[in-house]
Amino acid sequence: MTVSIETETEIRRLHFAEHWKVGTIEAQLGVHRDVVRRVVGLLSEQRFGLPSQPRRVEPFVAFIDETLARYPRLRATRLYDMLRPRGYTGSIRTLREHVARVRPAPRREVFLRTEPMVGEQSQIDWAYVGPRTVDGGKRGLWIFVMVLASSRAMWAEFVWDLSVWSLRRSLVRATQYFGGTTRQWLFDNPRTVVLERHGDAVRFHPMLLELAGQMRAQPRLCGVRQPQQKGRVERAVRYLRDRFLAGRTILDVTSGNRLMLEFLGEIAHQRPHPVHRDRTVGDLFTEEQERLLPLPSPLPGIDQVIPVTPDQTAFVRFDNNLYSVPPVWAERALTLVADDTVVRLLDADDEVARHERSWGRQQRVEAHAHRAEILATKRQARDLKGRDRLHAVIPEIDVLIARWVTAGRNIGSMVGRTIHLLNLYGEALLGEAVAELVARGTHDPGALAILCEQRRRAAEMPVPIDLLLGDHVPDRDVVPHDLGGYDARR
Questions:
Q1: pTM of the full predicted structure?
Q2: Percentage of residues in the chain having pLDDT higher than 90
Q3: Residue in 136, 197, 133, 124 with CA at minimum distance from that of residue 162
Q4: What is the sign, positive or negative, of the torsion defined by CA atoms of 172, 178, 184, 190?
């Protein structure tokens, strides 16, 4: 950058006469720092005819160059620690400037551009979306992505975990979507896929190998820290981030996968192919489908199957959550069968219990019928189990119970009255009433009953039969009698 002679004169005056620093001159005159340094002679070896002072780093240049030649990525701060005992008295800034000038430039690898054969290879990866709030804490949300390397057709779905069972489910669903499978599955090196690797010696996860054998596909791995070897799926992940996730908040898997499926069909597969620009990805995908290997019939099972033993409270622990079973099966061996939506407990082929799978943290999933069986056999535990039942369906009930304790109320009576309201009005309506009562800062059970009734009337729900005929009304035959006597008394 060149400046006028007037500006150069002013720079010299301010630096040598007024003793302004380079940064001050740069800020005040609006010129670049290198211009100021050039004008005042800091970038030249001679300054006004006088020999320049030798830099303090000069005696150590040979040592620095030799060290950087052996360790080109060594940081300047580590060099500084090595030079200080050797007599270096300069600043770390001076050393950094020298290292930046002499550090050997890394050799850039040149890659060979190739196009895989049609129907030959799929590339697979995951993309992290971010943490999401679930019941009891937070859980990471991911996108599983599978790309046909030739046509660039992709399948993507949101998942909550990266286990090998989740991988098996996603692989089977992806091949169903494509209508077949390629001959190779190319992965990175996650623990879900490969258990051990030493050079070219690889030990794949046995459950992945089992699925690959059933689908007649060959699992393959990229080189360690060589993401360019699966560039198709890497670009697909970037495409999804820029085109699908940008400006969109995905809170749960169900709605996210519904939107993703629409996006794949309406946008992703209608984009131009990166090589054959006059054709779409969908056009080449239609041709590639004919080259895919047919799917086996029936498809491999994708359920997670593990042996379990319910504890003394008739609960089974799975994925950090508890699932109830009938009390008769407590401490007896069962088989747990789970996919990403349902958890089933089996005794041989007989289904003992079925629950919707919870992706929360430390949750207790309990069937009311299972709890009722325990209550029927242990009446003395009614109050404690009643609290458990209320807490399972209305977590905010803990606030009311704490207020009852503070107010000196009989907890057993309060819980019993609330259980009665739960039986009359249901979980949803009672939950709304409890939330309003908590927000009001009160705890009166009578007010809770009034709120439930107000909501029932607003929703035009039928009157609960127990309000008309409770257990206190005995069942009696009514014998009609002559009413004529009433007229005779007039």
A1: 0.60
A2: 36
A3: 124
A4: negative
